[in-house]
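Structure, all two chains, one model.
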Amino acid sequence: MTKKRIGFVVQRYGLEVSGGSELLCRTLAERLGKYFDIEVLSTCAIDHDTWANEYPPGPQTVNGVPVLRFPSDYTRDPLEFEKFTFDLFNERSSWTREEEIDWMRRQGPYSQALFDHLQAHKASYDAFVFFTYLYCTAYFGLPPVRDKAFLLPAAHDEDYIYLSIFNKIFRDLRGIIFLSPEEQSLVNGIFGNRDLPQVVTGMGIDVAEKRTSVEAFREKYNLRKPYILSLGRIELGKGSPHLFHYFDLYKKAEDRDVQLLLIGKSLIDIPDRPDIRHLGFVSDEDKCSALAGAEFLLNGSFFESLSIVIMEAWALGVPALVNGQCKVMAGQCARSGGGLWYNDFNEFRKCVNLLLDDRELARKLGASGRDFVKKNYSWETIEQKYASFLNRYI
Amino acid sequence: MEIPYGNDEKPDVEKIMFSIRSEVVADLLKQRRRTPEIPEISHGVPLPDLGSRSRLFRALASTPPFKQAVFQFLKLGRALFYDYNKNNRAVIKILTDEIDRQNYVVNYLLEALVKNKLIADPSVKK
């Protein structure tokens, strides 16, 4: 039987590209090939700040997946865009449709060649899956193929999602794929689109025995003290300054010899103090060892549509403490029994103390998280969810 | 703290969080008793005419996470509706001042008010 042909449309794609939804797109393209004939349609960009054309346009194969890239029509000046966005969202609470579209065009990446391709070759695809609602690729690419379009919005409760220009994108399409029940609830609440075909899926986590060597890791990075691990990009949007502030308050309030260990690329200044260590990028094996040796994983992000890192921690039996103002992460912890969440500093302080002092509780939380991931987020389970949903509605 | 572990395999994290919140509120109420003065109301979230006090109370008490906090405040803190009749702003302002940055209490209050359609949802842009 011939496989159905699906175009995965994403703002950027490649082994050099970082970013959660891009990684999800690539992983799914590689894994769902057994069910569908998948082709990725993307731009030539690697950097999401500028959308500069870095990959050559045209066809290429990435890890066995055919990719067709189109150049962006213009690049983005990140500072100018940041200023424009700040002015738009902070000076007023409503905007004209033209202003919103202007914002979207500046957001990028805008590739007329990609949009033309979608329109001209629509008939040769059985369906399209658009990854992330927030970029031009979905905003301009989806409407011409809406009767064949599925959107994986990766939506957060952020200012942008309330722009009126998104009403049509979220209402007039074939179906929606959510990463968490909280994301589904948010989107259904804003757009009143509960009647559309939709499914909550997620991303698979390899719970298979990961190679870890905590002692070697500690030795390599000269880590002698117990540490709390924060994993991922260090930036404003991930709540990092807030986390540093809370850690500072905690250390002033409690006489505890515990360090905050940061792993990931930093886009902001990190406080220069001996109890905060930043290792930057590390290998996958070091990352797993860092997780395995942590007292717990701390995720202070305000915006997630699904937190992969807390599930990676759970896969290794490590409990999590997350920012409760991110409903998605609090929901993940509540459903799994794998972690706690805080809404202010006093809760943060009590949660940290509890996780550091009550090792039996920490162990149980970690074990519960591991069971949850194993049961719900094995790749086999996740692939089946995507495949059965798409097969049903294509 | 007495930890409600739940069953053997899965800790009851909702109960643990409730215990933690209760401890936080109890700590704050202890602080409250040490400084009984009503803070000056300088600013706050303006509220519409909320009707009777009992209506507001029922609205607040119907939101589960806030329910216990409401009872604790009424029982121990007396501050929640302290200045209600004098100035509608007082309800939230007193909480804000008394509890400092205890956003969760204020958030629960706002959530309850929004849920019961007593105020417009401030997070939704028109």
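Chain A touches chain B through 28 residues (CB under 8 Å).
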